[in-house]
Amino acid sequence: MGLLLLTLASALLSTYVPAGSRVEAQRLFTIRAVSLTVEPHPDGTRDPVVTRDTNVTLRCQAVVSSSGPEALVRKYTIYKDGSDVYTKTSSSSEDLLYPLPAARVSNSGKYKCEVNIEGKSMASESRKLTVTGLSTPLLHLNKGVVTEGEELTARCTAPGETGSIFFYFYDDTKEIQEERVNSNQVEVRLRFSSAGIHRIHCAYTVLITPDSFKSQESNTVVVSVKELSISPVLEVSPTDQVFEGDRLDLLCTLRSFVHNTEKIQLYLSQGTQLLSTGSTRVNHSMVARASGPTLSFECRLEMGPLFKSATKTISVTELFSVPTLRVSPAEVFQREAMTLTCRSESVASERLDRKELVYTLSPPENPLVAVGTGVFSGKALQFDFNYTCAAEAKGIKKFSQTLTVRPKVLVSVPKISVYGKAVLGQPIQILCHSDAGSLPINYTLLWGYDEVDVRSVRLPFDKAIFTVSITKPEELSKYMCEARNSKKEVPPSKRLNATVIEPLTHPTLTVIPKPDEVSEGDHLVLICGVRGTPPVTFKWYRVGTIEPLNFTTTDNKHKDYQIPRVSNDDSGTYYCEAYNSANGMVRSEQVTIQVRMALWKKAVIGGVGLLVASLLVLGVCVLYFRSKRGKREAAAELSVKPSIPKSDDSLAETLTHDSEASHAPTDAAPFYDGKEGRATNGTRDSVAPPPADLSNGSSYSAPASV
Ligand SMILES: *[C@@H]1O[C@H](CO)[C@@H](O)[C@H](O)[C@H]1NC(C)=O
Ligand SMILES: *[C@@H]1O[C@H](CO)[C@@H](O)[C@H](O)[C@H]1NC(C)=O
Ligand SMILES: *[C@@H]1O[C@H](CO)[C@@H](O)[C@H](O)[C@H]1NC(C)=O
Ligand SMILES: *[C@@H]1O[C@H](CO)[C@@H](O)[C@H](O)[C@H]1NC(C)=O
Ligand SMILES: *[C@@H]1O[C@H](CO)[C@@H](O)[C@H](O)[C@H]1NC(C)=O
Ligand SMILES: *[C@@H]1O[C@H](CO)[C@@H](O)[C@H](O)[C@H]1NC(C)=O
Question: How far is the C-alpha of 173 from the C-alpha of 67, rounded, in Å?
């Protein structure tokens, strides 16, 4: 039974044997614990702290249970900050000891131990070891006295330190160099660019990620730096009375040349522009230009890190000033004459005769020709053009600023019109407009010859609109406009010619014949009249009917509506309405018409018996006279005249004119001319005086019809 279990366990454990391992008798084992301890462990804390030079030992202990008598082969690995630093294979069960003799700061870190037996491994907990204390660095220089720019060698040592170390060198408190090495000493080359006493020391830092530990300062070593007996010299000729265009010679050299292995370089420059370079002598020749009040030159010597410079400043007098370009006349019109004048205002007369100055106009495709020194004339273009001129003498050329000439279009004679409609008694807008002309244009509204107002039109879509009010229609024609876009005058516009619309007033309805004298069969005429400006729309109404009886628009101030043969059905109350573009509707007073029975009917009813008797008597008489006289005579005696005027002409003759005294709308009062749809207020040959009280709804009367 026990043998069976053993065989089973053995079969399971065999899975831990790596493939290809030596074929040996399989051993049963288990790693029970792995621990790491630091010795000495002065304060007994988890993370020991030791001082520099302590002999530290890391002890790794593994507790393993196994089935055989001999110890199993164990592989120990020590990790510091995650990377393995030590590996040992042991076939004894003794602890592994990892010595850190005379510990240094660089030994600080997190340690861990791992044990591996036949592919099965276990790691310990990690322990953080801290080692304190760094050695004092030592500085050594190979020279105590150097000249400017000369190199010396400095060595800084960190005695006994290990690890990755940063070394720093200081001149007094200022850091002058740093170097990172993986050893405890470094050598650097130092140079000093200023003469005098320099106090040098060094220090170092040990890097233990993520921390760093800084040492104390080293001993201080004094270096004496002697000034180099070498300096740059700058010569400029001439130095006085330098005019633009004069030749300037510059020479940059060394004052004394001492034996020196270093390479020397000279740089000659003007402002930020490098003119020339060389090793011992730099020559430069140039034409002086008055780019500013003065010219500054520098001769600079460079020897390794050392540099010295010499400077000179020269003032250069302008030979002639930058030319100015002017245009005349001040306002240029398209295709009209213009002149450009180019001139340098000041000239150094001791060097230059004004006559030597040559002026040119650019661009070359400009439309002007030279007509004198610096004077260019011609016709202005039809578009904006940029001109520049140049003045030139003794190889010096100066350009004026660009002058943009914008030729104008003269404003055309303005037109004046009413904007919208002119209604008497309401504000009226007047528009002034010129078809051509460069903006801005000033429009002035005049009344008579008095200025009323000014409008400035600056943008293409702007309009010069003035608002006025008038009390009489004829006042409108006193307005006119002036337009101006330059100093040139342009004729004013014509006088404003526009119709003033007078609102309608005084509506009247005139009935012919008189409303109380209308009989059946009469020709009834309803005349609607107003005062105001045509065209007028008239509408006639009968009270009780919504729709108008008729309506019409006419260029007259009155209009008629006719009922050729009235009947009793036409009795009723009538009124009319009128409209024009100035205002809404005006309405006449109402007129009531009562159509009476025709006279001849009464006569017929009253005298029909008498008539029959008379006819009988007459018949007897006829028979009696026939026997005595001819038939023709008898027939002539029997004809009867019509009793009612039928023609329009005869009706017209019955119309009368109302007098001014009795009827207010004098000029609008209608003269009925008897023809359909026409009325005039002019004179007519056959006009009869009107009856009074027309406006109150009374009527003209027709002559007695019977
Ligand atoms: C450290 O060990 C060395 C010999 O390995 C010994 O000379 C030295 O005295 C020891 N230091 C201390 C502080 O025990
Ligand atoms: C350098 O200067 C010398 C005189 O000092 C002159 O003869 C020579 O032409 C100059 N060279 C240049 C490049 O200016
Ligand atoms: C003139 O010059 C101005 C700038 O100075 C530029 O904006 C403009 O377009 C130029 N006009 C013409 C017609 O070249
Ligand atoms: C137009 O009127 C403004 C003031 O309203 C004035 O400054 C400007 O000079 C006038 N322009 C012309 C061409 O008269
Ligand atoms: C006013 O304008 C009308 C046409 O609109 C024209 O018949 C008339 O002659 C003009 N009057 C004047 C004074 O120009
Ligand atoms: C108005 O009268 C005219 C004649 O005067 C006639 O031709 C027209 O048909 C009438 N219109 C209406 C709506 O009665």
Answer: 69
Domain boundary residue among 478, 501, 524?
A: 501
364 occurs within a structural domain: yes
Q: How far is the CA of 551 from the centre of ligand 6 (A)?
A: 7
Question: How far apart are alpha carbons 587 and 585 in whole angstroms?
Answer: 7
Cβ contact 387:402 at 8 Å: yes
Domain count, the chain: 7
Residues 517 and 485 reside in one and the same domain? no
Residue of 285, 286, 287 to mutate, ligand 2, most atoms within 8 A of C-beta:
285
> Whose C-alpha lies nearest to ligand 1, atom 14?
55
Asked whether residue 6 is domain-assigned, the answer is no
Q: Is the CB of 82 under 6 A from ligand 1?
A: no
Asked whether residue 567 is assigned to any structural domain, the reply reads yes
> Nearest ligand, CA of residue 418?
5
- In the beta sheet, which residues pair with residue 319? none
Mutate to test the pocket of ligand 2, among 233, 283, 285 (most ligand atoms within 8 A of CB): 283
Report residue 362 as tokens: 């650019």
Residue nearest to atom 9 of ligand 1 (CA): 55
Torsion sign, CA atoms 562, 563, 568, 570? negative
Q: How far is the CA of 471 from the centre of ligand 5 (A)?
A: 21
pLDDT at 42: 66
pTM greater than the 0.70 cutoff: no
Q: What is the predicted pLDDT for the residue at 389? A: 95
Same domain, 36 and 113: yes
What atom of ligand 6 comes closest to residue 677's alpha carbon? 5
The number of the ligand nearest the C-alpha atom of 538 reads 6
Residue 480 Cα to ligand 4 midpoint, Å, equals 19
Please tell me the number of the ligand nearest to residue 40's CA: 1
pLDDT in tens, 621-644: 556 556 555 544 444 444 333 333
Question: How far is 550 from 109, CA to CA, in rounded Å?
Answer: 119
Average pLDDT value for the chain: 81
Taking every pair of Cα atoms in the chain, the longest distance, rounded to a whole number of angstroms, is 200
Distance 442 CA to ligand 4 centre (A): 6
Give CA–CA dist 66/91, Å, rounded: 13
Structural domain boundaries enclosing 569: 505-593
101 pocket-lining for ligand 1 (C-beta < 6 Å): yes
480 in Cβ contact with 494 (< 8 Å): yes
* Same domain? 75 vs 105: yes
Least confident of 468-482, 614-628, 644-658: 644-658
Residues 221, 310 within the same domain: no
Both 35 and 124 in a single domain?
yes
User: Rounded to the nearest 5 degrees, what angle is found at the Cα of 340, between the Cα atoms of 336 and 343?
Assistant: 170
Q: Is residue 1 part of a domain?
A: no
Q: For residue 490, give the ligand nearest its CA.
A: 4
386 lines ligand 1 (CB under 6 A): no
Domain shared by 471 and 546, yes or no: no
pLDDT bracket for residue 303 (50, 70, 90):
confident
Provide the token pair at 522.
């009469």
388 with 445, same domain: the answer is no
Please give all residues whose beta carbon lies within 6 A of any atom in ligand 3, as ranges.
384-386, 402, 404
The CATH number given to whatever domain includes residue 431 is: 2.60.40.10
- Atom 10 (ligand 4): residue with closest C-alpha? 442
Of all ligands present, the nearest one to the C-alpha of 408 is: 4
**Residue 225's beta-bridge partner residues?**
146, 196
Ligand 1 near 55 CB (within 6 A): yes
For residues 562 and 550, give the distance between their C-alpha atoms in angstroms, rounded to a whole number. 10
Q: To 10 degrees, the CA torsion angle through 347, 348, 349, 351?
A: -130
Domain identity same for 582 and 662: no
| Structural domain ending residue among the three candidates 226, 256, 285 | 226
